[in-house]
Specification:
The chain is α+β, with helices and mostly antiparallel strands. It contains 22 helices and ten strands. 41% of the residues are buried. Bound molecules: protoporphyrin IX containing FE.
């Protein structure tokens, strides 16, 4: 999530700031940075890559061909080397050594992002408890309340996604959508809203708008790229640190207003159930889970609960909407794979349907159930035989491989900065000194043929089929969600949604085309958060697949 700042070298550090900040301050910023670079303690045994003649940083050479540049650096200097890039003096860590960054608690991803953007001040000012930078609470909420309940959330997620596709794209006959992200972020925001706050609140348009808008506000703080700008992080810390003019506060208020009547109604129902001596069926959403565990998480009040929910929204909506939009471009660029995906969903749903029929027959034969009619409204109701359940999505191994391959192929080559909180000695004897930032060389991992198999430069959607490498499995060969103790806890939800989106799009549309084919490569490699330079043309299937 937070680390997915674009390193697109075309982007400038925050246009808004540029307009507002006089040139003098820009110069002061450069002076400050130079001072910081000079004053940092650096291990002299870590080689610094020689600058190309005429260049004063490595940015231009990296931008010209990131893969060629990084490969040259690795071959010439080994797995650990310093670069002057993104307005910083960074130590790049490559290959198997990346594990040493993720597995060492003295490296902090959050510190590195805060250093560049001031993000922590922005986020922590909306919560009243658990404000410690290393608070495990968001992680625990996702681990304990979201991931184990995914099978129960899935039908609701599917319902939201289907209704959004139907209402916003509908039947298409060569229909151009110039910016599909607008539709897909609405769709993901509403699916997330049902999970986080329940179906009643998810119907509230103001809540959906807040889910989307807070993501834009968040983006302004993150900036358009991960280039360090002293004034950017200084301004974020100074502006948002005291919490007074943080735009997130109004979003928290929207959530509080939407949640209040729902909570009151739930309390009433709970009291009524208690009076009648029957068990109250607790609504299944994260809002309810947080209220039920109010003391466990040391929450202060409803505002605090909604502040925590908003943090989950910031972590989830943008990343998941962006990736689901990106999936469309891969389906459009590689139309030859649509059939395999469609056949797989038919096969899986038919198999499940047959298994359910066998279970019904066995119950009938054993006399446990008298007639087929008795299955109505139960788990084995025949009308749900072709539902896109969590179990069905799990069996779709081609979709899983397709999604993982997109993450691999699309990876930003230098990503996931981690700041050293203490001096850290690596296994090769080199030291990353306290205060320095190590950044991960994803090229060396995601584009390595020993780790990824043949032709890593090619998009091969079935690369992981038949291998124990699912899209949620983090390890030193797949770092889209980080690794180790801080690996993204939301990846199970994210992958479930991304696979569901893929299945639905394939079942509803026979053809997707990239509006301007000359921009295909750029569209496929667009970094999270960057605008995609071209639209998508949708054509519906004559007859929709039985999935939806
Ligand atoms: C495409 C979707 C997503 C991507 C690519 C993504 C990626 C990441 C990455 C790279 C990290 C840093 C891991 C590390 O430090 O090693 C992270 C952390 C995190 N993500 Fe995600 N994420 C996604 C979706 C989500 C969702 C849906 C949620 C919430 C439901 C979420 C919640 C979090 C949280 C709370 C952390 C911080 C974990 C910690 O520091 O312990 N993410 N994510």
């Amino acid at each position: 999530m937070l680390g997915l700042l674009s390193t697109s070298s075309e982007a400038v550090p925050i246009d808004i700031l540029r307009a507002a900040v006089p040139v003098g301050i820009g110069l002061a910023s450069a002076a400050f940075l130079t001072m910081k670079m000079v004053s940092q303690t650096v291990d002299k045994s870590i080689p610094t890559v020689a600058l190309r003649s005429g260049d004063s940083t490595h940015d231009a050479e990296f931008k010209d061909d990131p893969d060629l540049f990084l490969l040259r650096c690795e071959e010439q200097y080994g797995p650990v080397f310093n670069l002057y890039i993104l307005n910083q003096n960074l130590t790049v860590i490559s290959g198997p050594m990346v594990r040493e960054v993720f597995m060492n608690e003295d490296f902090s991803f959050g510190d590195a992002i805060h250093d560049v953007t001031g993000l922590r001040s922005f986020v922590t000012s909306i919560i009243k408890s658990n404000r410690h930078p290393d608070s495990p609470v968001p992680h625990e909420i996702i681990r304990d309340a979201i991931s184990p309940n995914l099978p129960l959330f899935t039908p609701r997620i599917v319902e939201q996604l289907v209704s959004f596709i139907d209402n916003n794209l509908g039947h298409c006959d060569h229909k151009l959508v110039e910016n599909p992200l607008l539709i897909f972020q609405d769709m993901i925001a509403s699916a997330m809203a049902t999970v986080f706050m329940g179906s009643e609140v998810a119907k509230n348009r103001k809540v959906i708008d807040t889910f989307i808008q807070c993501t834009y506000d968040f983006g302004k703080v993150l900036g358009k790229d991960s280039r360090k700008s002293f004034w950017h992080s200084f301004q974020s810390k100074a502006t948002y640190g005291n919490g007074v003019i943080n735009p997130l506060h109004k979003h928290v208020q929207v959530l509080v207003e939407a949640a209040t009547p729902v909570i009151l109604e739930r309390r009433k129902q709970e009291a009524e159930a208690a009076e009648k001596g029957i068990e109250y069926e607790r609504p299944l959403d994260i809002l309810q889970k947080l209220l039920d565990n109010f003391d466990k998480y040391n929450f202060v009040d409803l505002e605090d609960v909604c502040g925590h929910l908003l943090i989950l929204v910031l972590a989830s909506v943008h990343t998941t909407s962006d990736t689901s939009t990106n999936i469309l471009y891969y389906l459009a660029a590689f139309p030859e794979h649509m059939d395999t995906l469609l056949q797989e969903q038919h096969r899986v749903l038919d198999d499940i349907s047959q298994e359910r029929e066998e279970q019904r027959q066995s119950k009938l034969q054993s006399g446990e159930v008298q007639s087929l009619k008795d299955f109505e409204g139960t788990d084995l109701d025949p009308k749900n035989d072709h539902d896109l359940s969590a179990a069905a999505v799990k069996r779709m191994i081609h979709v899983d491989s397709f999604v993982r391959e997109i993450f691999r192929y699309r990876s930003e080559r230098l990503q996931l900065p981690h700041r050293a909180r203490k001096n850290v000695v690596l296994s090769n004897g080199m030291t990353i000194h306290k205060g320095r930032t190590a950044i991960i060389n994803l090229r060396s991992v995601h584009y390595n043929n020993e780790l990824q198999g043949e032709n890593p430069a090619e998009f091969r959607p079935w690369r992981f089929v038949g291998k124990a490498k699912s899209a949620t499995k983090v390890s030193a060969d797949f770092l889209a969600f980080g690794m180790g103790r801080h690996a993204c806890p939301g990846r199970f939800l994210a992958i479930q949604e991304l696979k569901t989106v893929s299945v639905l799009v394939v079942s509803k549309y026979s053809k997707l085309e990239i509006q301007d084919p000359s921009k295909t490569k750029k569209a496929l490699l667009t970094r999270i958060g960057d605008p995609v330079p071209t639209g998508i043309i949708f054509t519906s299937r004559q007859q929709e697949s039985k999935t939806v």
